[in-house]
Amino acid sequence: MTKTNPGRFFGDYTLGQVITHAVPRTLSGGERALYHALYPARHAMASSDEFARSCGLPAAPFDDLAVFHTVFGKSVPDISLNAVANLGYSEGRWLSPVWPGDTLRATSQVIGLRENANGTSGIVWVRTVGRNQHGVDVLSYVRWVMVRKRGTGPAPAPQVPDLAQAVDASNLVLPAGIDFSHYDFAQAGEPHRAADYAVGEVIDHVDAVTIEEAEHMLATRLWQNTAKVHFDVGARPDGRRLIYGGHVMSVARALSFNGLANAQMIVALNGGTHANPCYAGDTVRAWSQVIDKAEVAAPGVAALRLRLVATRGVAGALRGADGKYLPEVLLDLDYWVLMPA
Amino acid sequence: MTKTNPGRFFGDYTLGQVITHAVPRTLSGGERALYHALYPARHAMASSDEFARSCGLPAAPFDDLAVFHTVFGKSVPDISLNAVANLGYSEGRWLSPVWPGDTLRATSQVIGLRENANGTSGIVWVRTVGRNQHGVDVLSYVRWVMVRKRGTGPAPAPQVPDLAQAVDASNLVLPAGIDFSHYDFAQAGEPHRAADYAVGEVIDHVDAVTIEEAEHMLATRLWQNTAKVHFDVGARPDGRRLIYGGHVMSVARALSFNGLANAQMIVALNGGTHANPCYAGDTVRAWSQVIDKAEVAAPGVAALRLRLVATRGVAGALRGADGKYLPEVLLDLDYWVLMPA
Amino acid sequence: MTKTNPGRFFGDYTLGQVITHAVPRTLSGGERALYHALYPARHAMASSDEFARSCGLPAAPFDDLAVFHTVFGKSVPDISLNAVANLGYSEGRWLSPVWPGDTLRATSQVIGLRENANGTSGIVWVRTVGRNQHGVDVLSYVRWVMVRKRGTGPAPAPQVPDLAQAVDASNLVLPAGIDFSHYDFAQAGEPHRAADYAVGEVIDHVDAVTIEEAEHMLATRLWQNTAKVHFDVGARPDGRRLIYGGHVMSVARALSFNGLANAQMIVALNGGTHANPCYAGDTVRAWSQVIDKAEVAAPGVAALRLRLVATRGVAGALRGADGKYLPEVLLDLDYWVLMPA
User: I want to staple C302 with a disulfide (CB 3.0 to 4.6 A). Which of A61, B242, C66, C194 is the partner?
Assistant: First the structure.
């Protein structure tokens, strides 16, 4: 009997199935430092214990995307090892901050299945939940992937989950104690409050980063993401290592500091598309558009719904005349952040 | 007088000599995080404080090879700065786990000397011991290196130590408190116990990693290993930076998770050969063979003796018809691990 | 209104102006581990809590240049985003050690302004101060940069600060408790005391490092330095990423261990010139010259004033017949260190 993990194929998933992902992970100041070395991250809340305390938190929490990557990484061997494509995200919510010393584990439940017409693959929807050592949920999100079929068994009854277009602002979970009443704009780096942003406004984040192979592999390993395509030049016919889509997310989010320095915490992931593959040598820039604004029940805090686009091209350009993503667009992310009202 | 360290030559070693290696090192969660960024390490014991506690330890210990590299690195300026080749390892035993906050130092004793027939070099055997800040030995191993002679002095009386072919299972030192009675196979990632492995069984670890210059240099510096050949393109006639052999060890050990996820802790190094040099751009894969099994005196724990091979080629291939290592083989390591019985 | 930071231009600075730099940063064992992975740093004081305690400190402080880079990085968005050149340093003093857990912030005061004759740029002198979470100053230094003018407004009255040629030894600030009476030379790595060095003596540090793009970008991001030229191949006409000058400082300082292992702590920066640009692929070596020696008021401690030169060439060579830096010289640094008397 082979002892290695071949990954699951489409026929291995059943509706309602709960999969326990392996390898719990304790995070420390080491992972935080690496996050700052790998990404040009400058949001003050995740950078400074003092700043976080001035906002009502006990210390600087881990960057929200570091939590996402850690939980996502745990799910890869069970969900996307044989995935043809990572198709989308929905209903993502950060439920409790993660601190140095916390240990994260994850599970996923299959909430949808639909075989493709060609009979060689299918789409699997899972709701993945990350939990800390106290059994408290820290993150929950839905993602769907296209997975190869092994053999030619019968198709399951198609079951497509009914997913929200976006997390409703009333369902956003705020970190306990958060309070922006005494927010220090000088230390945060910019003077703009939520009130200063207009729905529809586009922000060009100006800066750019040219990515190296060593960087994206260090990052992807840090999250214990084992997908071969990121590490092994022999894993794809073109001999190129595909950059983990989450790496592009973090690059873009960090670049967005310049213009959105006060968008301190991500609290929901409404959707996301990895529009085109990213490779080492690409120079990535980012732009954002304000989609919505909402009041939330914490002193001085507001929520902003943002589109964050990572691109090899210019700010503002997203889709061609055919309605498809332009070839230079890498990522189209839709999320809610907390900022001073 | 020159103030820099020229390294020792063959004539500088005398039998019984004890060399104190410089630069004690305090390890923290930072080194642990870097280990996970540099290698695709997933063994749960070194990844999660919670998992380690469920196995009777007070917290997640440092990866055993991180301890090895730290101790080895201290010895490089005194033992292998003028080494022509790192010839072998023997009688290695991990004696006590290392935790974040511990400070390691190291000494080596010369236990063997033999000048080569050509009179221009000789072999030096040393037993290197790493100790923590409490004076407790954490690791002890023998290695032997070929060192250049300076000038043409008389040869010392040849003295070749009598080394064990392998550490006897009765001499394995178990971490205090270790107990696999309540081992969580789902969190560990695989269901296989020691009883599920057969002596002689070969495991192809499937995954592969293409190595970059920045990665192996970051790793080698992290262990304060100063050998010029790893960092300076001018140090070798071919202008290539040689990858530290220990980097290949850690890559292979981390890859071996896939098929040996429950081989949680390395407790002995029976032998090891760096069969061929490894360079950036190489795609490294790994395979293991079960050499032996043994009972040990801890609840639910067994020992497995494994051969771990790192290769640029296929699993299972090791030597050619001439009995020599195949050119694609990088490392042939022989070690004992602890896993659920 | 644009929400991104365009950086300040020459006309935006006024004499006496105090600028609060954004993004406080909490440092941990993670940043310390990364420092050791990025640079071949081996000075025992910053490597080992035990060694630091044997020298009267409570634990291993952060490497002095890590503190410098952190404070410097904070100042980049306000001081040097539109800088044409980083011209010099003066009157730098480390005022209190920084420990894991400390949070640093920084401010700069404009102490000099002089428009260039061409009317398109000017020189700005600032005194930058880093402070910890207790409001204690940890570092203070002067630097001056050439900054572009925007438009053609009138020139301010020229005001050139009167800067010390070097920090006087009587003004060096020693870490509280420092005591080298029981200094362990074997653990530190070399036997040489301050008394063993002669003024004028040149030390070739022998080792060399070939630099990779990923390494200098990881380092520069770690210090939250946002200057585009280090990250974006499109930021300069030649398409090359310029290596942050501070990266070269740290490479050279770490290499200087070999010959100056006991030069444990940098306490003053008298001056420094980034003589030529450094790029990935460069092989950097270092040499030092002893400029001065001084007694200081701590048991067993002396101060050494050193020139540290980073070069792509040979030790000892600095300037050509024309008095200009040779093209292979990268850095000429002048600083005071503490070592056993």
Answer: C194
Q: Which residues of B touch C204 (CB under 8 A)?
A: 4
Q: How many residues does chain A have?
A: 341
Q: Do C105 and A187 touch (CB under 8 A)?
A: yes
Burial class (CB within 10 angstroms; exposed 0-12, middle 13-18, buried 19+) of A326: middle
Cβ atoms within 10 Å, residue A174: 17
* C233/A contact by beta carbon, under 8 A: yes
* Predicted structure pTM score: 0.97
Which of B31, B51, B209 faces A231 most closely, judged by CB atoms? B209
Any idea which residue has 């209104």 for tokens?
Answer: C1
User: What is the spatial distance between Cα A186 and Cα A180, in angstroms, rounded to a whole number?
Assistant: 14
Q: Is B204 touching A (CB cutoff 8 A)?
A: yes
User: Which residues, in sequence order, are CB contacts of B66 under 8 Å at separation 6+?
Assistant: B27, B31, B32, B35, B98, B250
**B182, exposed or middle or buried, with CB in 10 Å at 0-12, 13-18, 19+?**
exposed
H/E stretch holding A245 = helix A245-255
Q: Is A38 on the interface with C (CB under 8 A)?
A: yes
pLDDT in tens, chain B (341 residues): 589 988 899 999 999 999 999 999 999 999 999 999 999 999 999 999 999 999 999 999 999 999 999 999 999 999 988 888 889 999 999 999 999 999 999 999 999 999 999 889 999 999 999 999 999 999 999 999 999 998 877 888 999 999 999 999 999 999 999 999 999 999 999 999 999 999 999 999 999 999 999 999 999 999 999 999 999 999 999 999 999 999 999 999 999 999 999 999 999 999 999 999 999 999 999 999 999 999 999 999 999 999 999 999 999 999 999 999 999 999 999 999 999 99
Task: Please tell me if residue A66 touches chain B, with a CB cutoff of 8 Å.
Answer: no
Q: Are the beta carbons of B235 and C208 separated by less than 8 Å? A: yes
CB pairs under 8 A between B and C: 138
